Amino acid sequence: MTDTMPAPASSVAASDEKSHSLYHEEQIHANEDPEEYRGPKGVFRRLGNKRAWRRFAVVEWTSIDPVPEEEQVQRSFLSVAFIWFSANVNVLSFSTGTLAPTLGMGLRTSLYVILGFVVPCSLVPAYFITFGQNLGMRQMVHCRYSFGYFGASIVALVNAMTGFGYTILNAILAGETLQAVSPHQSLSATVGIVIIVVIALCISFCGIRVIHWIERFFWLPVLISFAVMIGEAGTGPGGLHTLPSEPAPGSRVILSMGCVLAGFQMSWSASASDMSLYLNRRVKSWKLFVATFLAFALSSTSILMLGASFAASAQTIPAWSDALTQNPSPGPLVNLVLSTRLGNFGKFLTVLIALSAVGNMMATLYSLGLCCQTMFPPLTALPRFVIPIVAVAIILPLAIVGKDSFYDTLTNFVSMIAYWTALYVGVVTADHVIIRRTRFSSYDPAIWNQWRLLPPGAAALGASILSLGLVIPLMDQTWYTGPLAKNVGDLGFEVGLVLSFLLYLLLRPLEKRVAGR
Questions:
Q1: 3-class state of residue 74 by DSSP
Q2: End-to-end CA distance of the chain
Q3: Per residue, what are the HEC states of 366-401?
Q4: Contact (Cβ atoms closer than 8 angstroms) between residue 363 and residue 211
Q5: Average pLDDT of the residues of the chain
Q6: Distances (CA, A) of 141 to 150, 297, 467
C-alpha cells in the first residue's frame, strides 16, 4: 500500500469510457491498410483478420501478461470493492453459516466465532488486492516473485483446484435451491446446476469490465431478498430465537469452525489482485484497501451469521428442521420461509437467492482461466475465455455427482483450503512486507516470465513443505485427526501461517546468497 508507482498525466486525464485500451484498439487500427479492406473482398479479409475481429469482440482476449500502466484507466475503487460484496452475499455464505450449529455450537457462540475469524481474515485479501493496482500483475503471476516460475505453477495448480471446488459447491447449492422453488420439485437439481453454470460461464466470457459492471449492482437484490427472509421469519419461538440452553462447545469445535471460516475467507487471497488490474495507480491504495476490507467483512459476516441463526432456530421449529434435513442444501428452508405467506413473490425471491451463486462463480471462473495459464504457460497462446469452457465441462459432471453428499463435501473441502492458503499467505506476506518492505518498486515487471531471472522458489517451497511437518499433526478433520489435534483442536491453519512466515524469512536470504537472485 506504500511506495505507489507514479502514473503519467495522460493516463489520469483519460476517462474510463474513451481511453480503455484492453484490446489495443489504436495499435490494431494503425496497422490496418485502408486499401486492403475496401470493397466487397475487403469485408471477407476483415472477417479473416484475427486482430480486427478481436477489436470488436465482446469477450476479453487478455492473457496473464502484466497490464501496462497506460491501460490502468479505471478510477472507481468502489466498483472493485463491490465485486467482493457480490461474491459473498450469496447462498454459499448462508449455507456455510449453517455449519456452525451442526458442529455443536450454540447461536451466541456461533456469532462470536464468525465475527472473530472472518473479520481478521478479511484483512489479507483486502491487502493483496492492492498488488494488482500497483503492479498490474495477476495474483498467480505475482506469486512467481516468491515461489519462482516453476514453484508458482504448483501454487496455481492448488488454486485451480480451489476454484473448481468452490464453483462446484455454488452450482450444487444454486441448482438445489431452484429445484426447491419449482412446483412439486419438477425441475431437477441437475437441470438447475446446468442453468446456473451456463449463466456464470457466459458472463465470465466478457471479461473483467463486464464483471465489474454487473457485480456493482448484483448484491443489492440478493441482500433485499435476505432482508425479506428475516422479516418473514420473524422472532420468537416460531422464528429466529436463541435456545433456552445452549451447549458449551470445547476448543476443538470452535477451532474446527474457525478453520472452515478461514478457508472460506482467505482463499480469495490467491485471486484478489485479478480484480484490480485496471485501477489507475493515482487512486490511493489505502482507499482500495479499506473499501475492500469493509466489503469482505460486512458481506461475509452478515450472511454467515444469518445462516447460523436460521440453523440454530430450526432445532426447535419442526417445519424448518424438516426443510434442512430433507435436502443437503438450505434451498427448501429458504423457499419455505419466503413462499409460505408471500406465495409467488416469495418464490421469485428464492430464485434471486439461487442466482446469487452466479456472483461468486463468475469471478471464480474468470480467475480460473488466468490461474491455469500460469500453471501451464503454453496455455497463454489461447484466449483466456477458452479455459473456462473446458473447466465447465469438468465442473458439471462433478457437481451433478457430488450433490448428494453436499455437507460432507463442503466441510472437508473448505477446511482443507485453509491449510494451503495459510502457507501461501505466510510466504507472500513475509516476502512483500518484511523482505521487500512493502516497496512495489522492488518488483521488476519485465522479468515476470523469465525463469532464469526470477527467484528459484526453493525458499518458498521449502518453508511450505517444512511447515506441513507441524500442520499435519494439528489437522482435525472427519477423515483424519492428527495426534496433537486430539488434545488441542485444529490449529493447523494458525500454525501453518506463522511457521511459513518465519521459515521463509530464514530461508530466503540463504537462497539469494546461493542463487544470486
A1: strand
A2: 24
A3: HHHHHHHHHHCHHHHHCCCCHHHHHHHHHHHHHHHH
A4: yes
A5: 85
A6: 11, 26, 23
In the Cβ-directed half-sphere of 493, how many Cα atoms lie within 13 Å?
A: 25
Query: What is the b/e burial string over 376-386, where b = at least 16 CB atoms within 10 angstroms of the residue's CB?
Result: eeebbeebbbb
Instruction: Let me know: does 231 contact 390? Beta carbons within 8 Å.
Output: no
Please write the tens of the pLDDT for every residue from 360-405: 898 888 888 888 889 988 888 777 778 888 889 988 988 888 777 7
Pull the grid cell for residue 242.
436463541
Cell numbers 417445519: residue? 319
Residue type present at position 166 = Y
d(CA 391, CA 167): 10
pLDDT score recorded for residue 132: 95
The CA radius of gyration of the chain, in Å to the nearest whole number, is 24
- Report the residue count for the chain: 517
Cα–Cα distance for residue pair 350/226, rounded to 1 Å: 9
Q: Apex CA 119: angle with CA 116 and CA 123, to 5°? A: 135
Kindly state the greatest CA–CA separation across the chain: 83
Residue 133 and residue 279 in contact, taking contact as beta carbons nearer than 8 Å: yes
Q: How far apart are CA 317 and CA 239, in angstroms?
A: 8
Measured distance CA(324)–CA(308) in Å, rounded: 12
- Summarize pLDDT for 196-253 with one digit per residue, the tens: 999 998 888 777 778 888 888 889 999 999 999 999 999 988 889 888 877 777 888 8
Location of C-alpha cell 449463466: 199
Separation between Cα atoms, residue 436 and residue 444, nearest integer Å: 12
d(CA 438, CA 2): 6
Q: How many CB atoms lie within 10 A of CB 481?
A: 16
- Residue 423 and residue 496 in contact, taking contact as beta carbons nearer than 8 Å: yes
Q: Which three cell numbers mark 401?
A: 455427482
